[in-house]
Amino acid sequence: MDARKCLTTMLLAVMVFGSIAIAAAEPVVIRFSHIVSENTPKGQMALKFKALVEEQLKDKFVVEVYPNSQMFDDNQIFEALLLDDVQMGAPSMSKFSVYTKKLQLFDLPFLFEDMAAVDRFQSSAAGQELLTSFTDRGLIGLGYLHNGLKQLSATKKLVTPNDAQNLKFRIMSSDVLEAQFRAVGAESVKKPFSQVFNLLSTGVLDGQENTWSNIFSKKFYEVQPYITESNHGVLDYMVVTSVNFWEGLTSEEQSALKSVLDQAIAHGNELAGKKAMEDRQKVINSKKTEIVKLSKAQRNAWVTAMKPVWQQFEGQIGQDLINKAFSTN
Ligand code: LMR
Which residues sit with their C-beta closer than 6 Å to ligand 1? Predict the structure, then answer.
């Protein structure tokens, strides 16, 4: 090889390897898609995650947050994760049933007495095992995030379970929730979160169940004259990614990301309790809806009507898991 050829080859090699080195240094983009407002525990957690990554891991990762179903609606997120169109999300656990039946646990009415019990269960060995219980379906849970306890809203005052008879409620895509409303003689329709306000305001549906933060941020209270403070179930999330994405990271990257995510989740969880109280108060202050409080005996009538649902699903969820969750009360 003459000197000129040799120099050209060397230059080419420098250009090729140099550009590979530059490409390798590009931060990995993590698209985080969710369906709620930014002013909610999940919205704030996602923004905190983005900020912490910018602060602590900006050479390695960049987080883009897409709120309000901008990118994907409720259940579309799972397929999007599997296709690597997004890398993270935090769907409500009521929406996982295609991938695992075990998370239906969280939908059982009146299973947890309060959010402290939910927290105890989620951090127990049984709760932690659930995070990796569906990796064979290509998804992996990275942590739990709270929203809070659900309330019932409707066009009619709901005091006794009979009051719900023949009303049509919007539910998340969960068979347990369908059975829960059937247990009080009501109908239910599985619809995406982004459609709830319209379905209620146009009178297509009569009611829905949700947390104070979702009822407030999506203005459901403006189109529902009554909200029964039932605290009958929990709406919590699992932060998920795909096994493919997660396993594509080095173990150092995984632990760095997990540590930042844990901080963001802790922030979201702390906010969840506060927001539930604040948003409840804002709904009361609005005077646009009547808050229906239940006496102990009145609430017990709902427990009696809805609790048989547990038995219907114990085969799918596992009696042992239900017992462990209940024992955290
Ligand atoms: C719902 O669909 O009502 C909730 O899952 C929305 C959410 O993500 O909090």
Answer: 35-36, 74, 92, 147, 172, 193, 210, 214, 235
Helix (H/G/I), strand (E/B), else coil: 139: strand
Host domain of residue 267: 96-326
Residue 231 lies in a domain: yes
Confidence of residue 8 (pLDDT cuts 50, 70, 90): low
Ligand 1 geometric centre to CA of 165 (Å) = 24
* Total number of domains in the chain: 1
CB of 112 closer than 8 Å to CB of 105: no
Of all helices (H) and strands (E), which one includes residue 229? Answer: none
- pLDDT, tens digit, 9 for 90 and up, residues 286-308: 999 999 999 999 999 999 999 99
Query: Is 23 inside any structural domain?
Result: no
CATH code at position 233: 3.40.190.170
Mean pLDDT of the chain: 94
In a domain, 158, yes or no: yes
CA of 284 to the centre of ligand 1 (A): 21
Identify the helix (H) or strand (E) that includes residue 208. strand 207-211
Question: Is 48 part of a structural domain of the chain?
Answer: no
